[in-house]
Amino acid sequence: MAIDLIQKLIDTVSDFRGLAFNTVAVSALLLYETIITFPEEVNHVWTWLVAVVAIAAGRLVLNLRSSAAKSLNASSSETTTPPRGFISQDIEMGIFTTVIETNQT
Question: pTM for the full model?
Fold first, then answer.
């Protein structure tokens, strides 16, 4: 009985692994075909995607720095980190300005 359950589990996992591999392979082929067919449009999409990822990464780093500084300064009443919103707005404006200038050239 237990051997049958283990065998079913192994079969299910291997089915999912095969399905995941097939999904990744088909997605890669579709992405490749799209890049070949629409190179200029894909270039704009990649540029904006990189900007969105960079903004998210910047916010994550700022949040981690802020929480690390708070945990280090938990015993003191002062924090030495600047306001988080001001820095993240500057980062976002710089990234969007760069992306817009890149797309216009």
Answer: 0.38
For 47, residues 6+ apart whose C-beta sits below 8 A from its C-beta are: 99, 102, 103
| CA nearest neighbour of 104 among 96, 9, 54 | 96
> HSE on the CB side for 46, CA within 13 Å?
9
Closest CA to 63 of 40, 38, 33, 85: 85
Exposed (0-12), middle (13-18) or buried (19+): which is 9, by Cβ within 10 Å? exposed
**Tens of pLDDT, residues 26-64:** 777 887 787 788 888 877 887 778 777 777 777 777 777
For 80, which DSSP code? -
Instruction: List all residues 6 or more positions away from 65 whose beta carbon is below 8 Å from its beta carbon.
Output: 81
